[in-house]
Protein 1
Amino acid sequence: MGKTKIIEEKKDTEINPKKGEVKAAPPKVPKKKVISGVVHIDATFNNTKVLFADKLGNTLFWSTAGALGFRGAKKGTPFAASKVGDLIGGKAAASGVKDADVVVLGVGSGREPAIRAFMAHGIEITSIRDATPVPHNGPKAKKPRRV
């Protein structure tokens, strides 16, 4: 088992090979200016997915721990969830987001780290809602094991 590659954000610099000089690339202008939105965090035992949408429910950007280069059991870790939250928080801050609501689904270990990493970009969290589906009775249980 070797080290896995974690995708880093590209720097806004441009290298001119002819002259050997480094200059700053122009900042990327987001397609849509959004002031507030909704962050959907789906934290399962195996992966963490973070989706940012506007108030109408239109998805603006999303990412998962697997998309960042985490593989296997490492996808479900709090560290992977914080990296995903950090990426989405950076994109949201670049898009001009000031505040966001958070909707959390699932019982994985990436629930809180994803929220904390998203908040680190200066975006105010107005509400946190837990929408984890809970069965009210569920399917019939397996019969007891006889040994």
Protein 2
Amino acid sequence: MLRSIKGQSFAGKRVILRCDLNVPIKDGKITDDGRIRASLPTIKYLVDQGASVVICSHLGRPEGAPEAKYSLGPVALRLEELLGQPVIFSEETVGAKAKAAVKLLTDGGVALLENLRFNPGEASKDAAERTEFAKQLAELGDVLVSDGFGVVHRKQASVYELAQVLPSYAGLLIATELDILKRLTDSPERPYTVVLGGSKVSDKLGVIGHLLPRVDKLVIGGGMVFTVLAALGHKVGKSLLESDQIETVKGFLSQAKTLGVEVILPTDIVVASGFAPDATFEVVASDNIEGTSFGSNGLGLDIGPESAKRFAEAVASSKTVFWNGPMGVFEFANFAAGTKSVAQALLSVSGLGVVGGGDSAAAVRALGFDESKFGHISTGGGASLEYLEGKSLPGLEVLND
């Protein structure tokens, strides 16, 4: 059972709070602050108790050294706006400057450390190096509250080793995410539909294998669908294709049939002349993708309007829905309709509708939906998928009594 912050007193304590503030930043501006806002309830909970809060997070994938484009400086400014109070920003993660920054904190104060991954110890493959970095972090606080759900599937210093150095607890966001995922695996209300998209079918095979015995309908779109269509014997032009996964796909299609799971595939596809927002395109039957004027050079970039309607009907008629992965290249307006249709349908689910993080969450925001209308938008795409595959997540295991 996870050690929770609920029922614990943090008054007068300095709390290291591991969040997932890995947000997209372009030209120094945050383009999607969803993960920052998701961290606010735990931050406010600790502040209201009178703790001084030292927040740490990674951003992007720097190679163990500072890179200006990956600085958490813009995140500190946004946190100040959202919290309505000053946030001390330490330009270093550990060491003298970090210690000086946290010493300025009074009860109820908040500080943010610079990007954890600017230090090679954070994501090192060497456990001893991670432990050494965790000990340096531990000098900045009395206890650890782990609330970065998007990283709990990673064995990294601030997620795993630090929780062994300091007394550690799970934050409110992690508790919410786990509650939702348990409902999806242990006691889903039926009909239960899983909608999968995104680029690679190989990324979703574990989820498919684990959830097939639990679901009523499996809806597949996105780039991964072309490997499924190829497994059915259809030509897919230059669309995304993992030819080495075709036999595996045939296996899960056969298993679905045995289990009585309805697999819903697109009947029409939006095929484009190339990968560009202004590419010319045609709608064609999914078993005839090469039947456009582009021939074998055609590239499938979205499900077609007929399929979008069928997918939406399957979602809206369900009591439980888990959606992970866009139906097409939603970043291009001409190829966003399928994704938008699924998102819209999810709003009308009378039970639990879950947006499974990652690109799906990004799509919901990019397409202008009101996030508060969805049952739940996960902050951890990879972590959610690994949990739904039945895998052990080290960042959670270390928080268990």
Protein 3
Amino acid sequence: MKNFLFVMRQPPFQGSRIRESMDMIMTVAAFDQCVKILFLDDGVFLLKSNQNPDNPDLKTSTPLFAALELYDVEELWVEGESLAERGLDPSHLILPVRTLGRTEIAFFLAKADIVVNC
């Protein structure tokens, strides 16, 4: 079994990139690999509750994140500084997360066998 770490840095509603990343995450998890997701920078907005895109052609990614539990993806991490810089805290998010400090990120990345920047 490999340890996969998916790093989500992009804000929501930026085309199909998030959906494609979520498809990749769920596919890896379906093959019983260890999957962790780290939300950095504007990627923390992906988990913000009560989001509605301005463009009706874009859909919220909330149902995709809710489906992670079905794939046993339970390790969701956020960088605390990314949250604070954007005026958010864990209570504003749709799923429970664990928080890392900016100084811990390099060590966290080094523990993964495979890092995928989404």
